[in-house]
Amino acid sequence: YSGKKSGQAITDTMTKWKVKDFQSVPVVIQEHISVYDAICQLFLEDVGSMFVTTKEGNLSGVVSRKDLLRIAIGNQDLTKMPVHMMMTRMPNITVCHKEDTLLSAAQQLMDRQIDSLPVVKQSAKGLEVIGRVTKTTITRAFLALSEEHDI
Ligand code: ADP
Asked: Does ligand 1 have an atom closer than 6 angstroms to the CB of 94?
């Protein structure tokens, strides 16, 4: 044997994996809640970033832990500032879809230097958040690859 066959098998597995096979549950907050409450939520949910939606449930932004730290070291009253004032907002949000390959999602994370991507679905009323892909998702897939191929 050369290593070629197993190398091809690994490539086949990697290109077959879709976002929907590995996506996790998104943490979503509404854009009118305060920065203070967003920080509490970040700790409660134990995540690095959260997706922000309008009251109707459409994706409007992303807040990361560093976004929240940046605001928290300023002098603002965090209980009075709504999260939509400081989030990264649409249309500058990088998203993915459940049928995308996991490989393309990983490429987006690296290209944009971000930790997470919302998985979205276009509905009649707007962009709905149905999942998330993070660097942890990619690490989990990396380990699954070694299990599937007895590495
Ligand atoms: P952190 O800032 O905590 O290290 P990230 O690296 O994910 O977390 O975020 C870096 C910046 O990019 C932040 O300002 C954040 O709001 C923004 N960001 C995070 N995820 C996305 C995304 N999917 N699309 C666009 N911007 C994003």
From this structure: yes
Beta strands in 43-103 (DSSP E): 49-53, 59-64, 88-89
Structural domain count of the chain = 1
For residue 88 the two structure tokens come to 């990264």
The domain that contains 121 carries what CATH number?
Answer: 3.10.580.10
Print the domain residue range for 127.
Answer: 4-148
What spacing in Å lies between the alpha carbon of 66 and ligand 1's midpoint? Answer: 8
How far apart are the CA of 64 and the centre of ligand 1, in A? 6
31 Cβ closer than 6 Å to some ligand 1 atom? no
Q: What is the ipTM of this complex?
A: 0.97
Distance CA 20, CA 101 (A): 9
Q: 67 with 87: CB under 8 angstroms?
A: yes
How many C-beta atoms lie closer than 10 Å to residue 77's C-beta?
Answer: 9
Q: What is the largest CA-CA distance in the chain?
A: 66
pLDDT tens-digit series, residues 25-61: 999 999 999 999 999 999 999 999 999 999 999 999 9
Distance of CA 32 to the CA centre of its chain: 21
